[in-house]
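We were asked to recover a plausible sequence for a given structure. The inputs and outputs are reproduced exactly as logged, with field labels preserved.

PROBLEM: sequence recovery
POSITIONS: 421
GIVEN STRUCTURE:
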């Protein structure tokens, strides 16, 4: 219900205005300008209905003072028994929303007040739309920077940068529509861990920000982080199915205000550095920026969750295809195993005549090998590792690959093989 402050030095007029307006609005009253200023600061009404001619402080002066004390425009409607056009003109020049003469009819007063309130609601609606992320209904990026920036200039607390771990897999495996649902779900969880006076927004993609006012306890932040990680996984499985194996969670970088300053951009950069620490140490946790940052990093430690983070999801049939740099690390590791445990490792190299055949050949190779085999591409060369394989195994695999190719292409491919003992 909208709140209206009515100011008049005549008790009878106050009673009349209150009786008329209280049918639709919450009404508070004052008999002097000084009293009205104090009530305005405490109650923050949506608009003011004020008598123009009052002793000590008239309506013009009251409007000027209220406007100085408020960051937003104060809608004020003047009422007066003065019949002259001069007072009405002056009122509008000073920014009055409307003007009504005493005595007034109840229906006219209600209609004029209603017009002002409707106009305010439209303005507030447009402001909200301009500052809200349409998907999550949190603050958007610009509004987050502005509103949180204003808040940290005058208040203490913790600035958090929140990132959704493994979110890209949701889009890749389930589609962007389901990805949007996960973002909405995460936004709702953020709302649950912040209070009414705190602020939260979406900076873009799967990156969020929040400011928790007057929070300086690391344990409170750790508890909120644990709640978000636990509930996000539970809610995601309810949405995607119990067989969902994506290690969804959140990594959080935090910085305390004013310990590390009051400039939003600088604080955000520090929170980002703290977030990087979490990402480097297993994700699903929180790191607080500061001198003892290493000690302030709290991670999810359960071995099953760590295995979920490390593990491969939605394993497809065929060989394990990796980038060349990763292939080098796998090669070195398998060579060590072979030297110590006589693993039986065979190394193959296929060289194509032209790059245009690479996609076709890649598909044939992957689907001709075992899940335990590893493949990479380096230019026109395809390299294959066959662990625990014999010469007979390699012969069978090579024949299978060539049999699936066009005969002319198979003849032109160069092939080499070595057994590593």
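RECOVERED SEQUENCE:
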């Amino acid at each position: 219900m909208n709140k209206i402050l009515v100011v008049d030095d005549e008790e009878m007029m106050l009673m009349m205005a209150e009786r008329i307006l209280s049918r639709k609005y919450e009404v508070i009253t004052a008999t002097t300008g000084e009293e009205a200023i104090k009530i305005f600061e405490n109650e923050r009404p949506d608009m003011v209905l004020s008598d123009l001619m009052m002793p000590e402080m008239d309506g013009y002066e009251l409007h000027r003072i209220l406007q100085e004390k408020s960051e937003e425009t104060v809608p004020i409607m003047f009422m007066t028994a003065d019949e002259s056009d001069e007072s009405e003109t002056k009122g509008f020049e000073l920014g009055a929303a409307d003007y009504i003469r005493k005595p007034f009819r109840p229906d006219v007063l209600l209609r004029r007040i209603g017009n002002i309130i409707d106009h305010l609601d439209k303005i507030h609606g447009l402001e909200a739309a301009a500052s809200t992320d349409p998907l999550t209904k949190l603050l958007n990026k610009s509004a987050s920077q502005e509103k949180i920036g204003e808040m940290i200039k005058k208040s203490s607390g913790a600035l958090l940068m929140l990132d959704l771990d493994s979110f890209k897999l949701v889009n890749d495996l389930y589609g962007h529509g389901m990805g949007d649902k996960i973002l909405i779900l995460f936004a709702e969880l953020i709302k649950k861990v912040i209070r009414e006076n705190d602020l939260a927004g979406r900076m873009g993609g799967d990156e969020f920000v929040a400011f928790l006012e007057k929070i300086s306890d690391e344990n409170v932040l750790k508890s909120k982080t644990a709640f978000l990680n636990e509930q996000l996984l539970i809610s995601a499985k309810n949405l995607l199915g119990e067989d969902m194996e994506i290690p969804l969670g959140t990594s959080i970088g935090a910085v305390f205000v004013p310990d590390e300053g009051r400039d939003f951009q600088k604080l955000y950069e520090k929170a980002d550095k703290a977030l990087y620490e979490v990402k480097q140490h297993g994700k699903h946790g929180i790191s607080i920026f500061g001198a003892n940052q290493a000690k302030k990093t709290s991670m999810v430690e359960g071995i099953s969750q760590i295995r979920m983070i490390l593990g491969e999801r939605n394993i497809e049939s065929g060989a394990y295809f990796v980038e060349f740099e990763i292939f080098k690390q796998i090669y070195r590791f398998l060579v060590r195993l072979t030297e110590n445990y006589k693993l039986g490792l065979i190394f193959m190299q296929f060289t194509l005549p032209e790059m245009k055949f690479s996609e076709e050949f890649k598909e044939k190779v992957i689907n001709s090998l075992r899940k335990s085999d590893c493949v990479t591409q380096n230019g026109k060369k395809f390299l294959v590792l066959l662990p625990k394989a014999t010469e007979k195994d390699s012969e069978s695999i090579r024949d299978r690959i060539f049999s699936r190719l066009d005969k002319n292409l198979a003849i032109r491919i160069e092939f080499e093989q070595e057994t590593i003992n």
